[in-house]
Write a structure and sequence with these properties.
Elements (H helix, E strand, L loop, with lengths): L11 E5 L9 H14 L4 E6 L1 H4 L6 H18 L7 E4 L5 H10 L4 H5 L2 H7 L9 H4 L1 H10 L5 E3 L5 H18 L7 E3 L34 H9 L17 H14 L3 H7 L5 H27 L2 H30 L7 H4 L1
Parallel strand pairs: 1-2, 2-3, 4-5
């Protein structure tokens, strides 16, 4: 007797990083991209470059195109394999904007107003100076995720609230219009969910950080990266101990060290027992240089052949549309939009 078992379908993961700077930073890598690379063998993976999200804040068209290619090259240099994973640019798949509109129409104004990212980003200039696009940022992100019937979304801690909204919208749509969307879950690796600014360890490391010295840009000269680690703000006292409350600066350095070497924080604490902050910084600077140098070289190699990058992205967009178009058609049908028939078929 023969028995046949159908292998269980792989779960789908999806994530992306915005092209809003000349390089991804170390926080993006440790909090997100690295987890994507680890997960792509086991999951059915979709990684994209959210360029539509990049225009929700001030932007320059020439820069946007350049930065989009840089992020594409950095994904691949970091280990995203376009043969294994679906890899594309968001604006190449129009279904993202189309589904976002449908979701906007089932999202409460008050609900969107409670999104902390919008509040943070408009804190200085006031909400009146912000665009409608920035306000609708979370529903576009929900569309990104729901279009692909995503199970898991590997992101850093700062994206948790967006994931909650996405889940709420999926459930709301399913209840009102019939089961359509998979309700996704966030995958946040606790130990590396948030890398802090090296100069201000109470703020997250970000592409638009107040002081450039607080951020390690993956494409910058490794010597600059080393300098930034060595001049990182540390805390009162001398003990090298992981204690985010009392010692946020040192704890951040230990998190980075542990993430890049695979050594646990406990191991590092005992390795550096009785040593000074300076020792830790000098060693970590070497670790960071060894990490960023090959990544940077590979990114430059990939960027030297933009036609090949564009080819990979075009292929990825085709694969993405095969999935996205099916979901959008279901959504439109369930919401009561009249089918649009091609005249070619009627004649
Ligand atoms: P973005 O471009 O700000 O960041 C990309 C990823 O990096 C993580 N991250 C961090 N992790 C740890 N420490 C930090 N200092 C740090 N800074 C950033 C972010 O959590 C993120 O995972 N809204 C998203 C982009 C997006 C998206 C999506 C993500 C658009 N659509 C759909 C997932 C699914 C964003 O702004 O990421």
């Amino acid at each position: 007797m023969t028995s046949s078992t159908t292998p269980a379908a792989k779960k789908r993961i999806l994530s992306g990083a915005k092209p809003t700077a000349d390089s991804l930073h170390l926080g993006n890598y440790i909090g997100a991209v690295r987890n994507w690379v680890d997960m792509q063998a086991e999951y059915d993976a979709v990684f994209f470059i959210p360029d539509l999200h990049a225009i929700t804040v001030d932007f320059d068209p020439t820069e946007l195109a350049k930065r989009t290619r840089i992020v594409a090259a950095q994904y691949i240099a970091a280990g995203i394999d376009p043969d294994k994973s679906i890899f594309f640019v968001q604006s190449h798949v129009p279904e993202h904007a189309q589904l976002a509109w449908a979701l906007n129409c089932i999202t409460g104004f008050g609900e969107a107003s409670r999104m902390t990212q919008f509040k943070d980003k408009t804190q200085k200039s006031g909400a009146d100076a912000a665009t409608l696009g920035l306000f609708a940022y979370p529903t576009l992100m929900a569309a990104d995720i729901l279009l692909y019937q995503t199970d898991l979304v590997p992101v850093g801690e700062d994206q948790r609230q967006h994931l909650e909204l996405t889940r709420n919208l999926a459930q709301r749509f399913n209840t009102r219009f019939g089961a359509t969307f998979t309700v996704p879950e966030a995958t946040i690796v606790k130990e590396r969910a948030k890398i802090y600014d090296l100069q201000n360890p109470s703020a997250k490391m970000s592409k638009t950080g107040e002081s450039p010295n607080g951020t390690i840009q993956l494409l910058e000269d490794p010597k600059i990266a080393a300098k930034r680690i060595k001049s990182a703000v540390t805390d009162a006292g001398t003990e090298i101990r992981f204690d985010p409350e009392e010692k946020p600066g040192v704890s951040n350095l230990l998190t980075i060290y542990s993430s890049l070497t695979g050594k646990s924080v406990v191991e590092l604490e005992s390795e550096y027992q009785g040593k000074m902050y300076g020792h830790l910084k000098v060693d970590l600077a070497d670790v960071v240089v060894d990490f960023v140098t090959p990544l940077r070289d590979r990114t430059h190699e990939l960027m030297a052949d933009p036609a090949e990058l564009d080819r990979l992205l075009a292929h990825g967009a085709e694969r993405a549309r095969e999935i996205a178009s099916v979901t959008l058609a279901q959504v439109y049908e369930r919401m009561g939009f009249l089918p649009s028939f091609s005249l070619a078929g009627v004649r």
